[in-house]
Design brief:
The protein is of the alpha/beta class. The protein has ten helices and twelve strands. A hairpin with a 2-residue loop joins strand 1 and strand 2. Helix 1 runs parallel beside helix 2, helix 6 packs parallel to helix 7 and helix 8 packs across helix 10. The longest helix is centred in the N-terminal third of the chain and has 11 residues. Its EC number is 4.3.2.10. It is found in: Cytoplasm. InterPro entries: Aldolase_TIM, His_biosynth, HisF, IGPS_HisA/HisF, RibuloseP-bd_barrel.
């Protein structure tokens, strides 16, 4: 699956580098409609400052986006309760992505899966490679919350396994080190988590060219790839990405 990502801040799509230095990329509803026309398999909408600003996800923007697309829509950012999950699903989302709240309130994963089905509950993991002087975690990647602002001390691989055990039906995995760098996904991280869990893993963070997408499927063993910069700024179209991957024997719906 090829999944464009809309990181939204203040009602506009933005894109940064390693979660900082954000620049404007357009109107979320307009971009959503474009990606739907181009053949995106799914769409991810992330209100990237909702958790750090302690506010709710922008329901109105989600509704505008959902009206533009006929492909599955995942919404994340600021979802803290079952009521928030229900509100997003009622606004047009097919799935919700939870990150900070999943760590703060793990029961939210289980309760969401029980009420709406595991297929609706995506746990997003923002992970950064351990730097020299940090003795944890054992896997070599630490989980961060609040849009990459707060370290948790959690081992990314172990947290992914626990999240799936609690009921998550999918993992959205972002490498903070590679995000926006355009140098390729963290294949080692992606592969480690793909091998550790029995549910689909979406690779995120680092796509700069079409070969990087191919590498995520092969070297990273991902089930789907999420990308923003290469699509938002016109480097490639989704059709170009799909045709390239199909030509290299990656099964694609074209």
């Amino acid at each position: 699956r090829i999944i464009p990502c809309l990181d939204v801040d203040g009602g506009r799509v933005v894109k940064g580098t390693s979660f900082v230095n954000l620049r404007d990329a357009g109107d979320p509803a307009e971009l959503a409609a474009q990606y739907d026309r181009e053949g995106g398999d799914e769409l991810v909408f992330l209100d990237i400052t909702a958790s750090s600003d302690s506010r709710d996800t922008m329901v109105g923007v989600v509704q505008r986006v959902s009206e533009q697309v006929f492909i599955p829509l995942t919404v994340g950012g600021g979802i803290r309760s079952i009521e928030d999950v229900r509100r997003m699903l009622n606004a047009g989302a097919d799935k919700v992505s939870i990150n900070t709240a999943a760590i703060n309130t793990p029961d939210l994963i289980t309760d969401g899966a029980n009420q709406f089905g595991s297929q609706c509950i995506v746990v997003a993991i923002d992970a950064r490679r351990v730097v020299e002087g940090e003795e944890y975690p054992a896997s070599g990647w630490q989980v961060f919350t609040h849009g990459g602002r707060n370290p948790t001390g959690l081992d990314a691989v172990k947290w992914a396994q626990r999240a799936v055990g609690l009921g998550s039906g999918e993992i959205l995995l972002t490498s903070m080190d590679e995000d926006g760098q355009l140098n390729g996904y963290d294949l080692e991280l992606t592969r480690a988590i793909s091998r550790a869990v029995p549910v689909p893993v979406i690779a995120s963070g680092g796509a700069g060219n079409l070969e990087h997408l191919y590498d995520a499927f092969t070297g990273g063993e991902a089930d789907a790839v999420l990308a923003a910069s290469i699509f938002h700024f016109g480097t490639y179209s989704i059709a170009e990405a799909k045709n390239y991957l199909a030509s290299r024997d990656i099964p694609m719906r074209v």
